[in-house]
């Protein structure tokens, strides 16, 4: 039909190098990253990301004869995505091979294809430092967790070529308050037998789980295998899969332990101290995931604006849209810069501050990026609704906003040296940063829990501003400091001040196709 001629529609954003991200390449630029970036930009792999989400996992509690099997069936695209992630070392490989920054860059790039499978990849990465609390278990399991072989078979862990780790902490009565857990662990020879109900177990088809339970000596951490060393199934049953807002490709389950065998990791009564090693590592991946989502949102919005005409000109040439896109790009580059800085050398205070703020900014950023596409962005085919639904997860996972903010307050009160380390990092790089630091210092002596979020927000913005001045593009750093630190900024995106170098910022945001 002549009336159905398609004009003024934007071509798909495919065939590009996802790693061609100036803020990322400041930190890592090497052949294996660029190869993964080109793979991530292909239409074939972007479609696999879509397929994994429109075909979510399905729980099969019993076989056709009534036997309990407790298996989750995934679409083949899920396994394809997992295989690429594992073979490229996005999981625990850096613990054996040493390059955590390169791993972070790859995780950031590959998450833009599909974010859900990043959950088991991240937990496998994070399991290693916790597992090292038990040198015997670490010697047995770490090489398999770090293996670049994706082996999905249901077999005894030590007979497999590679392992995936999950995490089983929260319970229905406690949530973030894991000390309220009621799962019990009874000593039985060299093993423990765990009995209880877990409300939110991530990746229930993993090979091993780090699990919290109440032992005689108090809350403790255990390694629980899905299959026992003799090849029989452990006493773990899956009750249901969670029907989640986003992260649809990944299975999350309620599970029951009924005298499930587990092995103690760390000391009895030190479960939180042990599991926090895993939590701190996954918090880095929360930051990376949010930064990755922001970059995806910016590139989709900028690509759309560079091809779509309205009112006689391309959207990207119109002043109001230029401000919005530049503001989104500044936020994205600030998130990427601090994420890579954290990956290059951990800062415990910097991680807690950044986990709160960057993850909190994700949903607002995704909503604005979606709006840049107008009605087209509200349609599932655009991919933007999936990005939007995914965006709140990182702020909730591993400690929601209040938990992260209160962690910062505790660190400030207990370890004054962390404050000095932070202030030394951010002082003396830019007058606008220094002015914000002076105001921060004045408020540090009079902070209570009701003001925790305000304090942590300011600390995060100051840290991002200082890092952009040190490592970022001058136009991006200037726009960030002028808006976020000097106060010449509105509430919504698209309110950068006059004098912003929109052209230089947008040149870095539009993907090269």
Description:
- The protein is 50% helix and 14% strand.
- Helix 6 runs antiparallel to helix 10.
- The protein contains 19 helices and eleven strands.
- With 513 residues, it is α+β, with helices and mostly antiparallel strands.
- It has two domains: 22-269, Beta Barrel (Butyryl-CoA Dehydrogenase, subunit A, domain 2); 274-509, Butyryl-CoA Dehydrogenase, subunit A, domain 3, CATH 1.20.140.
- Strands 3, 4, 5, 6, 7, 8 and 9 form a seven-stranded mixed beta sheet that branches.
- Overall mean pLDDT: 96
How many β-strand runs? 11
Radius of gyration: 23 Å
The helix fraction, in percent, is: 40-55%
The structural domain count equals 2
GO molecular function: acyl-CoA dehydrogenase activity
Domain Adaptive response protein AidB N-terminal: 8-151
Keywords: FAD, Flavoprotein, Oxidoreductase
Protein name: DNA alkylation response protein
Q: Topology, pairings included?
A:
Elements: H1 22-25, H2 31-40, H3 43-54, E1 58-62, E2 68-73, H4 76-87, H5 94-97, H6 100-110, H7 118-131, H8 135-145, E3 165-168, E4 184-188, E5 191-202, E6 208-215, E7 218-225, E8 236-241, E9 252-265, H9 271-307, E10 309-310, E11 313-314, H10 319-344, H11 348-372, H12 384-390, H13 393-396, H14 401-414, H15 416-426, H16 431-444, H17 452-471, H18 474-485, H19 502-509
Parallel strand pairs: 3-6
Antiparallel strand pairs: 1-2, 4-5, 5-9, 6-7, 7-9, 8-9, 10-11
Helix pairs in contact: 2-6, 3-4, 6-9, 6-10, 7-8, 7-9, 9-10, 9-11, 10-11, 10-17, 10-18, 10-19, 11-12, 11-14, 11-17, 14-15, 14-17, 16-17, 17-18
